[in-house]
Inverse folding.
């Protein structure tokens, strides 16, 4: 499929809305993650939810696949369709479960420049620049940015963008608040901190932790998005369900705001059906979901009235938007 043309934003536009999806952990259909989580159904629901916010771009911050599963052709069809449906680019970068070389030829075809590896790309939304980085260090729990990657980033940032820059990488340059995840963020974050100090970088988007978290790298805000697939309940919680989330990021002329948005409060053992794919406007069979499987509406979506959402008639969304604007 040809890369769809997306909305051209004027360079002087000072406000942007980014929708972040992270850690979708797609498995070859009809396999379920952990035998019970339908990652395709959740990703479809997440993209449907993204429509509500009329984003200027969707950023997928890694672990598009689960365990290097060969899902990339189907995922590219889905994300191409989402870009056309949403009227904005869908930007991806690799996580520790991904195969960067497989992603390179399928995604980010609207990029303005490449970096030293397939995970390093540069994009412009009008005057806003988004730079992706591949932070995976295969076989090791922590992420890493090489001297080559950091040198390239330093060179890119030497020329400021009219509306500033957002960085996106999988491994957060801040430690998780969960002791369980200690040592699983970006190793040596001070190296990245020194590269971005004094530049136009106004925010950093990450994933990987499968829980929401904010932080700072020097004077730059960091947002760790909760996962589309599998956010385990807190230890000791009576809730035994995994939840599914996206994040909305609002960039004003001098502000960076991020909030998690619940897509599904729980994931029963269900599989997507062709009709659930069609709820997002996908042609039948685009993700190869089986006929006769349970409906997407069986998921505990916050607002299951997809038609109403698509028509922009959701009063709750309007209220939420007014709080953020
Ligand atoms: Fe993940």
């Amino acid at each position: 499929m040809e890369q769809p043309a997306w909305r051209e934003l004027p360079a002087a536009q000072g406000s942007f809305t980014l929708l972040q999806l992270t850690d979708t952990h797609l498995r070859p259909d009809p396999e379920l993650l952990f035998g019970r989580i339908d990652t395709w159904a959740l990703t479809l629901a997440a993209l449907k939810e993204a429509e509500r916010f009329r984003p200027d771009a969707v950023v997928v911050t890694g672990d598009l696949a689960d365990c290097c599963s060969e899902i990339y052709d189907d995922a590219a069809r889905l994300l191409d369709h989402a870009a056309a449906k949403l009227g904005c680019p869908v930007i991806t970068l690799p996580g520790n479960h991904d195969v960067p070389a497989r992603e390179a030829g399928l995604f980010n075809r609207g990029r303005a420049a490449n970096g030293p590896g397939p995970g390093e790309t540069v994009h412009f939304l009008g005057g806003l620049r988004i730079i992706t980085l591949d932070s995976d260090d295969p076989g090791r729990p922590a992420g890493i940015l090489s001297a080559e990657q950091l040198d390239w980033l330093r060179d890119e940032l030497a020329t400021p963008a009219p509306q500033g820059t957002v960085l996106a990488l999988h491994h957060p340059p801040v430690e998780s608040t969960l002791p369980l995840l200690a040592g699983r963020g970006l190793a040596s974050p001070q190296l990245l901190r020194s590269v971005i100090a004094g530049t136009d970088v106004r925010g950093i988007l990450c994933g990987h932790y499968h829980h929401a978290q904010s932080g700072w790298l020097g004077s730059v805000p960091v947002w760790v998005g909760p996962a589309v697939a599998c956010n385990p309940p807190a230890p000791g919680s009576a809730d035994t369900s995994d939840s599914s989330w996206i994040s909305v990021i609002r960039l004003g002329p001098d502000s960076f705001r991020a909030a998690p948005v619940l897509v599904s409060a729980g994931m029963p053992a269900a599989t997507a059906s062709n009709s659930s794919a069609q709820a997002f406007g996908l042609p039948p069979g685009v993700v190869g979901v089986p006929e006769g499987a349970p409906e997407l509406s069986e998921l505990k979506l916050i607002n299951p009235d997809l038609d109403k959402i698509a028509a922009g008639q959701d009063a709750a969304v309007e209220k939420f938007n007014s709080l953020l604007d």
